[in-house]
Structures are given as structure tokens and as C-alpha cells.
Amino acid sequence: MEKIKQLLRVTLSLITKSDAVVEVVDAREPDLTRSKFIEKYALTRNKGLLIAINKSDLIPREVAEGWKRYFEVKEGINAVYLSSTEHLGTKILRDAIKSMVRKEGTVVLVGYPKTGKSSIINALKGRHSASTSSIPMSPGYTKAPNKFKIGEGLYIWDTSGIIPPDGSELERIIRGVNVDLLEDPVRASLMLIERVEKYNKDAFREVYKIDYSNPHELLEKLAIKRGWFYKSTKEPLIDEAAKAIIRDYHTGKIKYYVPPPQE
């Protein structure tokens, strides 16, 4: 816990010393993957703030446009949408960053784990340089800030992904909690399943090719399909199925998105 607090203090210090902040959010869940704590911290210190709606290849373009418009019109925060892995929108992001800083300046990239901060840096640099990982806190997960040059006189800090874990249990799951550290992965996955099905009732059927009548049955049938059983009772090992679903959500295999609030 003290290490986490230390990394957070470092991130806040970098924000204070830099010209602007780029906050990376997940295009499927922009509102639940943003940190209003960080946004307020940056704005009260007169720092430029830009929301980068990443993974936009996972949602329809009109939905990405809607979220961009929502942030800019309703909240007064500049926003761009992009897909760092597909190298779509990288130039737009670069130009937006340049508009926030002096001729020579530094910005801080912040965001919860799995929003794609390191992938964005790789795209901005045009070659692989920042470590990346699909699973929070596994090898490749950024543990300490790193500074990279992304243009002539332009630098960016890639932070650790340590942000105050505010919000509900569901929000913490969506924001990249390490699945192996969950006390009750089954409960967590059931919450996630219900969230996803609210916006795409067939999301899990499309991915796993399983028919089911309720979320718990989905876990059981997935465990059976994958051959996961408790050695002692031979019952389906639903804990592993739950973890698999959460991991598949983080890697973008489960297709759904939340539309922007009605304008």
C-alpha cells in the first residue's frame, strides 16, 4: 500500500511540473475509466487537460464521436478518440498535445491499467519502446514513470497507472484490478456479466458459443467447455471461468459499449 501511495505522489508531482495532462480512457466505458480526482488536480493547477478515448476500434465511430462531443460540450474538456493498436487517430492526438504546450514542453499520460497508455506512447513514437501488457500487474505492466521523447522538444511521461481506487466494486474491476488478487472472482465476474449484458445481451454467446439462462450458468458451462473441474468434487471450477471472463474483457474479446449520455 505504501508503494502505491508513493507512485501516486510521484504522478501528482509530475503533473505539477508539467504543462498538460492526457487522460486515457477506454472507449467502451469512458465515464467509468476516467479519474475525476486527477482531472480536478490538473485543472486546479491550471494544467491543460485532454481526454484520449482509446480502443475506439472496439465501438462504432458515431459512438466515439458522441463521447468526444459529450466531454467537450457538456464538461468543457477537450477530447480526441483513437485506436493506438491500429494506429488510428495518432496524428490527431499528437496535434492536440502540441496545442496544449509551449514550443518545448512536457505532458503527463495518466489512466487506469488497461486503458492503453503505453500503446499510445508506442504509437506516438512510431516504434515499440514503452513496455505493454494485456493483464494488469503482469510483466510489461508499467510500475514506475518513464519519460519519452515524442517530437522535437516534446516529451511525455508514462505513469504507473496508480490512481486512487475510488468507485464501486464493479468500477474497480473495469478499471483494471488484478484478477488474481480478487477475493471473490465469481462475484466480480457476475457483476461484469450483468453490466455487459445491459448493453449487449448476446456478448458472451458470441464469444464463447455457449447458450445459458443466467450468469452463473454461463460460468458453469464455460468451465465445463474448458475442462476446468475441482479435483476433489469434480464440480465445474467456476473460479477459473470467472477469471477468464474478466481477462477476456480486458483484452477486448467481449464486444459491448456504453453510449454517451443523451444530449
What is the compact description of this entry?
With 263 residues, the protein is of the alpha/beta class.
What does it look like?
Strand 1 (20-26), helix 2 (36-44) and strand 2 form a beta-alpha-beta unit. The protein has helices spanning 2-17, 36-44, 61-74, 90-98, 117-125, 169-174, 185-199, 203-208, 215-226, 238-250, and strands at residues 20-26, 48-54, 78-81, 105-110, 146-151, 154-158. The N and C termini lie far apart (40 Å). It is elongated. It has 2 domains: 2-158, Rossmann fold (3-Layer(aba) Sandwich); 178-250, no CATH class. Strands 3-2-1-4-6-5 form a 6-stranded mixed β-sheet, with helices on both faces. Helix content is 41%, strand content 13%. The chain is of the alpha/beta class and 263 residues long. The mean pLDDT is 88.
